[in-house]
Design goal:
The protein has 589 residues and is of the alpha+beta class. It has 23 helices and 15 strands. The strands form 6 sheets. It has a 5-stranded mixed β-sheet. It binds zinc ion (ZN).
């Protein structure tokens, strides 16, 4: 799972859009030739970069509109150089890294094919635009991995084609009967690692990724094996070899297990993972890659922090009988710098932290690994958070904003998912918070992790543990305040955004956040904040410990809304980029 919310919620309108596609096809049937070659024949006959979609007639001919505000939309993603220092790597590690970036590049191409049907044909249509429009359309297509705007419900920004909810995982002309067939799980069409296509007779069939993307995955596997042969790190060598095999067998289990054990400086997270791109069913995994280098100093500090978790559990501001110092989160946390990213994670909003693998068998056996992308966070602090603060945070508190506080908040947010109620007993019944709080669980858990993230830092400092300076209180407070606005901008329809609205409203009620009528800016009262954030942690943890669904609903109902004062503040942030568009000068070409 990726931590940063991405603008790809499931669309309630999916059936309507699918109908629109069918209508579009019906309209085109009369004007173009609609001969549908069998997919295998098409794959064999076409050069490997050509579209493997059986019918690209819908791409059509003739003039295509481009949205009038394209330049403003492009400006929402500010190009930002990510170029971590690699001097501490020896020549071998540098060579391994270069191979892994090549693999990542292949994943980018694979995801492009998964996200957008007929990408090559669409690209050819861009070449027909007036010369002065082509470059910006291409750049925005690269950000969105297609002609549909991920920020605006996948509406087309170039052309008029409706976005297929199932991306390119399924034929774009699926009928309702076929959708029912896929979702009844009886036909093997719902596989995580298959593309659904039509056979010669037009019937649906599942084509494993290893076949559909055979050429690219063979090339990726070869590069992984070359990197495995180079590296002197045993854990990396084992993972790379196993993952190479997985690319050709579609069985990722063993390599997912080995990924958990990596202890190398140079790391890669690569393969088909998340299923958000399949907006129709959420069945199909999207290719992506993170090439990273571990920060050894930060990892040391982290090890010490992890030892404090049982102590923090005992300090929680809730009834002692709810505390469980043996909760023992096995999940390792890594702090890394991103050297290159590709595929699913490169589209739209950039990931600052992720938690993988998703395979429940691996999670049972080894837990999951949380990876924090420190340089991506720093970039977002500079490019997004700081400009937001300059508009909404009281001027005399601006000097307290620090990139370190933004990082620490994210780090302790992640740690806090491992503190507090998890397995609980309700009316003598052993259960889990997640099961009892149902649809309210994610929102409440995210609000808890945010609030507890600050509380952890404060409690450790009050106990003179020596991790943070005395200035940490006002630095965390000011940076946290700006962070609320950044996160709420992603929308309160989703757990992270709603969790931030909850914190804002709660802290306003407690007098920790006040708005200055004269300037329209917001101020955070540091001592009141320290007290109120503990109260918020206590209230949420108690609801969780008691598994009280009704209380959780009532809490979210009471605090989860968008007050006018917050909406007015957000409206003043329109000119500030929504996210970064990473540039990797060493590797982009
Ligand atoms: Zn979280």
């Amino acid at each position: 799972m990726n931590h940063e919310p991405r603008s790809r919620r499931r669309r309630a309108a999916a059936p309507v859009m699918a109908t629109a596609i069918v209508l579009l096809f019906a309209a085109m049937a009369g004007c173009g030739d609609r001969q549908r070659p069998a997919p295998e024949a098409a794959m064999k006959d076409q050069p490997k970069t050509a579209d493997r979609d059986s019918d690209c007639g819908w791409v059509g001919t003739g003039p295509l509109p481009v949205v009038a505000d394209l330049d403003a939309r492009l400006a929402a993603y500010v190009p930002t150089t990510l170029d971590p220092a690699l001097d501490h790597l020896d020549a071998t590690e540098q060579a391994v890294l270069a191979k892994l970036v090549e693999v990542a590049r292949i994943m980018d191409g694979l995801f492009g094919q998964q996200a957008t049907p007929c990408a090559q044909a669409l690209s050819a249509r861009i070449a027909e635009l007036p010369a002065d429009r082509q470059d910006s359309v291409r750049r925005y297509v690269a950000i969105n991995k297609g002609p549909w705007d991920r920020r605006f419900h996948y509406e087309p920004f170039f052309g008029t084609w409706p976005h297929p909810a199932g991306a390119n995982y399924y034929p774009v002309d699926l009928t309702d009967a076929e959708k029912a067939m896929i979702s009844d799980h009886a036909n093997g069409l719902d596989g995580l690692f298959t593309m659904v296509r039509r056979d010669e007779a037009g019937a649906l069939k599942a084509v494993p990724y290893s076949q559909f993307f055979a050429a690219e995955l063979q090339q990726a596997a070869a590069l992984m094996r070359e990197a495995a042969a180079l590296t002197t790190n045993a854990s990396l060598k084992a993972f790379l070899e196993s993952r190479a095999t997985a690319f050709l067998s579609d069985d990722y289990y063993e390599s997912d297990m080995l990924w958990m054990d990596l202890d190398s400086t140079v790391e890669i997270t690569v393969g088909p993972y998340e299923t958000y791109e399949d907006g129709l069913f959420g069945y199909k995994a999207a290719f992506e890659a993170f090439v990273t280098v571990t920060d050894p100093v930060e990892s040391q500090r982290l090890a010490k922090f992890k030892d404090e978790l049982p102590w923090l559990e005992m300090q929680l501001p809730m009834d002692d009988r709810h505390k469980n110092p043996n909760r023992g989160s096995e999940s390792p946390i890594r702090v890394v710098d991103e050297v290159y990213s590709a595929g699913d994670t490169r589209a739209g909003v950039q990931t600052i932290a992720f938690n993988l693998p998703n395979d429940e068998r691996v999670r049972e056996a080894k837990g999951s690994k949380k990876v924090l992308l420190r340089n991506v966070m720093k970039a977002k602090f500079e490019q997004i958070l700081t400009p937001i603060a300059q508009v909404v945070v009281a001027e005399d508190q601006l000097g307290d904003l620090t990139a370190e506080s933004f990082f620490l908040h994210t780090l302790w947010h992640e740690m806090s998912h491992g503190i507090g109620p998890g397995k609980i007993t309700v009316d003598g019944r052993e259960t889990e918070v997640r099961l009892e709080l149902k649809d309210t669980y994610s929102t409440l858990e995210e609000a808890k992790a945010d609030a507890m993230g600050e509380w952890d830092i404060f409690v450790l400092t009050r106990a003179n543990k020596g991790y943070f300076p005395e200035t940490i209180f006002r630095q965390q407070a000011a940076t946290y305040l700006a962070g609320i606005f950044r996160s709420v901008r992603f929308g309160i329809g989703e757990a992270h955004g709603k969790a931030n609205a909850i914190q804002f409203n709660y802290l306003v009620e407690k007098g920790a956040i006040t708005s200055e009528a004269a300037t329209g800016r917001f101020r955070i009262d540091v001592p009141v904040f320290e007290k109120a954030i503990a109260e918020l942690v206590g209230e949420i943890c108690t609801i969780q410990a008691e598994g009280d669904y009704a209380a959780s609903q009532a809490f979210i109902q009471r605090y989860g809304g968008m007050p006018d004062v917050l909406a007015a503040a957000l409206a003043k942030l329109d000119h500030i980029p929504v996210d970064i568009a990473p540039v990797f000068p060493r590797w982009d070409h």
